[in-house]
Amino acid sequence: MSKIKDNKARFQFGTGITSIIMIFVVLCLTTFGILSYSTARMDENYAKKSYESFEKDCAAVNKVETLLYNIDAIIAGVRADETLIKEKNMEAYLKKIEVKLKDLAKQETEVNLTMKNDLISFRVNIDKNNAYDVQLVVNEISDTGLRYTLNKYKVIYINDWNSEDVWRWN
Fold first, then answer.
1. Residue 159: which pLDDT band, with cuts at 50, 70 and 90?
2. Do the beta carbons of residue 120 and residue 101 sit within 8 Å?
3. 155 has which bridge partners?
4. What's the CA gap between 120 and 63, in Å, rounded?
5. Greater confidence, 91 or 43?
6. pLDDT greater than 90 at residue 42
7. What residues contact 146, with CB distance under 8 A and at least 6 apart?
8. Can you give the three-state secondary structure of the chain, one letter per residue?
9. Higher model confidence: residue 142 or residue 168?
10. For 106-151, what is each residue's pLDDT tens digit?
11. What is the C-alpha to C-alpha distance for residues 41 and 168, in angstroms, rounded to an integer?
12. Which is it for the CA torsion 154, 158, 163, 168, positive or negative?
C-alpha cells in the first residue's frame, strides 16, 4: 500500500502557471489604477465646474441684492416727500420713482430694469443660460408699513434648451 502512495505523481506548480497568475495580477492592478485615476480626474473637473457655478451665482445674488437695496433707497427717498404722503397722490409718487429708476438703469448697463405702473422688474444674468428674474410691486403711499412687496425672485433658464450643454463631461 505504501508503494502505491509513492508512485502517485504530485501536482506541482511550474513556472508557466506562476507567470500567468502574475500577469493577471499586474493587469488587474493596472486596470484598477487607471479607473481610480480617471474617476479622480472627473471628480476634480466636476468640483471646478461646481465652484465656478457657485462663484457666478454668488456674484449674481450680490448684484440682485444691491439693486434691491438701491430700489428700496429710491422708494424711501421719494416717500420722504411729505406732500405726497399728505395728498396720497399715487400717480405722482410712482412717476417720481420711475424718474429715479431711469437714472439707476443708466448706471446698471447689464441689467434690464423696467417699471410699468407699480411693477418694477429686472433680470440679472448668472451665466449664458440662467438669470435671476425679480419683480416687485410698489405699495400704496403711507407713512408706515412696507415700501414694496417682492412678487418674484427666482432663477430662470434664458436660452433654448440644448442637450449637448447638459451632457458634456469634458
1. confident
2. yes
3. 132
4. 16
5. 43
6. yes
7. 139
8. CHHHHHHCCCCCCCHHHHHHHHHHHHHHHHHHHHHHHHHHHHHHHHHHHHHHHHHHHHHHHHHHHHHHHHHHHHHHHHHCCHHHHHHCCHHHHHHHHHHHHHHHHHHCCCCCCEEECCEEEEEEECCCCEEEEEEEEECCCCCCCCCEEEEEEEEEECCCCCHHHHCCCC
9. 142
10. 887 788 888 898 899 999 999 888 999 999 999 887 756 788 889 9
11. 15
12. negative
Structural contact between residues 53 and 111, judged by C-beta atoms closer than 8 angstroms:
no
Q: What are the structural domain ranges in the chain?
A: 36-166
- Residue 166 has which C-alpha cell? 447638459
Question: Residue 39: its pLDDT value, please?
Answer: 94
* C-alpha to C-alpha distance for 86 and 26, rounded to whole angstroms: 88
The grid coordinates of residue 147 equal: 415700501
With a pLDDT cut of 70, the percent of the chain lying above it is 85
**Cα dist from 35 to 28, 32, 108, whole Å:** 11, 5, 49
CB 132 within 8 A of CB 161: no
Q: Is the pTM of this model over 0.85?
A: no
